[in-house]
Design brief:
By secondary structure, this protein is α/β, with parallel strands linked by helices. The protein has 10 helices and 10 strands. It binds adenosine-5'-triphosphate and magnesium ion.
Length: 239
């Protein structure tokens, strides 16, 4: 371990059939960091997270987590090694209660540890505790996003992959989500954060990568990326 990054992606190539989506990307996430992954629509951000989680097959290159090669491993095994994905669009089980949704995130935990883990999630999100017996489909968008994050936390991940957690939410709720991300990092969870809201993502992140057309176009300390006019104009959709 030592100074090695927690997650290391090198020369990663991923395709959808004949369409190349990732054209040899490299990135690293150190333990304890929030790393922002930015870029315009279709740049390859979601594809990167899905590849790390093992949902998409890797065509070339390597993904290492905690000094072990995880590219090529099954989704369940990658999850058990400590990586949890909160997918774009939340995808809670609408016909299950809040408590049942959280239970679904704990498949890798011994049964006797589920209740304790769920109590921790309820301590973190009082709004979920109040609605524990309510069907997830009746929650607001912000509450569903919190439930999706809570469900991912049930597996006690060391690395949390968040895909557009603020998408479509009211500004006040977006603030809450970003505060939560910082809190989770401060509690020891490492975070790779995909965001369209580049400005806010760079405010909470330690470092960032900007993707364009399946490649890494820029990288650096979050503060430097945020201050770069060139990055802002070319990749972040700022006038
Ligand atoms: N299921 C799929 N089949 C074919 N091509 C796909 C599929 N999913 C994504 N792509 C293509 O792969 C490229 C990368 O898509 P990806 O979803 O990773 O981008 P993104 O950066 O997450 O974009 P967005 O900001 O819109 O979420 C795009 O050109 C996209 O059209
Ligand atoms: Mg996406």
């Amino acid at each position: 371990m030592g100074d090695d990054p927690l997650l290391s992606v090198s020369s990663l190539e991923v395709s959808y059939g004949p369409i190349a989506a990732l054209r040899g990307i490299g990135l690293e996430v150190n333990g304890g960091e929030i790393v922002a992954l930015l870029g315009s629509n279709g740049a390859g951000k979601t594809t990167t997270l899905l590849s790390i989680a093992g949902v998409l097959p890797v065509r070339a290159g390597e993904i290492r987590f905690d000094d072990a090669r995880i590219s090529g491993q099954a989704v369940e095994r990658i999850a058990r090694s400590g990586i949890a994905l909160v997918p774009e669009g939340r995808h809670v089980f609408e016909g299950l209660t809040v408590a049942e949704n959280l239970r679904m995130g704990a498949a890798s935990l011994p049964g006797r540890e589920v209740e304790g883990e769920r109590t921790k999630v309820f301590d973190l999100f009082s709004v979920l505790a109040d609605r524990r017996s309510q069907l997830a489909g009746t929650l607001s968008g912000g509450e569903q996003q919190m439930l999706a994050i809570g469900r991912a936390l049930m597996s006690r991940p060391r690395l949390l992959l968040l895909d557009e957690p603020s998408l479509g939410l009211a500004p006040r709720i977006v603030e809450e989500i970003f505060e939560l991300i910082v809190h989770l990092r401060d509690q020891g969870t490492t975070i790779l954060l995909v965001e369209q809201n580049a400005r806010m993502a760079l405010e909470v992140a330690d470092r960032g990568y900007v993707m364009a057309q399946g490649r890494i176009a820029a990288e650096g300390a979050a503060r430097e990326l945020a201050a770069s006019d060139e990055v802002a104009r070319a990749y972040l959709g700022v006038a």
